[in-house]
């Protein structure tokens, strides 16, 4: 589903999508923090924006592949078959401008075919050439 620009942003900001994560998805701005990147990625999954997920994934991520077509199809399949109900930020480290690594712990409330597939994850991000990228995450019980 394409996300209407006047809908509330799925990232939890309570702002309209066009005033929130859309500026990142359209590459008008880069996220300044790992937290902004994390929230914009959750929103990108909800908006079926596979290109943004690929653009913001570090090459050391286990999903990273040079087969962009297949990777994009996998992301879109997941996004189209999942309801992204809620994002809760549980913990994050405020970065300073010199930081190149950061962590965000969040809970994603998701449903797939009426099954609860929610999870809590501590995500790791690296900043390279001024751009934050998602590297990996550890699930938390």
Spell out the key features of this protein:
4 helices; five-stranded antiparallel β-sheet; 26% helix; single chain; Nuclear Transport Factor 2, Chain: A; 141 residues; alpha+beta
Q: Which percent range describes the beta-strand content?
A: 25-35%
Total DSSP E strands: 5
**Total domain modules:** 1
Task: Please trace the helix and strand order, writing H or E for each element.
Answer: HHHHEEEEE
The shape is globular
Q: Do you know the CATH topology?
A: Nuclear Transport Factor 2, Chain: A
Share of helical residues: 25-40%
CATH architecture: Roll
Note the main sheet: 5 strands, antiparallel
| Count of DSSP-assigned helices | 4
Protein name: YchJ family protein (SEC-C domain)
InterPro entries: NTF2-like_dom_sf, SEC_C_motif, YchJ-like_M
Pfam families: SEC-C, YchJ_M-like
Describe the structure.
- The protein is an alpha+beta fold and 141 residues long.
- It has one domain: Roll (Nuclear Transport Factor 2, Chain: A).
- Helices cover 26% and strands 31% of the residues.
- It is globular.
């Amino acid at each position: 589903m394409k996300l209407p620009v006047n809908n509330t942003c799925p990232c939890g900001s309570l702002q309209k999508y066009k005033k929130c994560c859309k500026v990142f998805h359209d590459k008008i701005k880069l996220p300044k923090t790992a937290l902004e990147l994390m929230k914009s990625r959750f929103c990108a999954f909800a908006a079926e924006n596979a290109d943004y997920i690929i653009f913001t994934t570090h090459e050391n991520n286990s999903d990273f592949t040079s087969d962009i077509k297949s990777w994009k199809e996998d992301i879109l399949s997941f996004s189209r078959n999942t309801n992204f109900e809620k994002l809760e930020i549980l913990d994050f480290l405020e970065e300073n401008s010199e930081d190149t690594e950061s962590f965000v712990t969040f809970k994603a409330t998701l449903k797939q075919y009426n099954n609860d597939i929610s999870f809590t994850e501590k995500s790791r991000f690296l900043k390279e050439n001024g751009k934050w990228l998602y590297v990996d995450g550890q699930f938390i019980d």
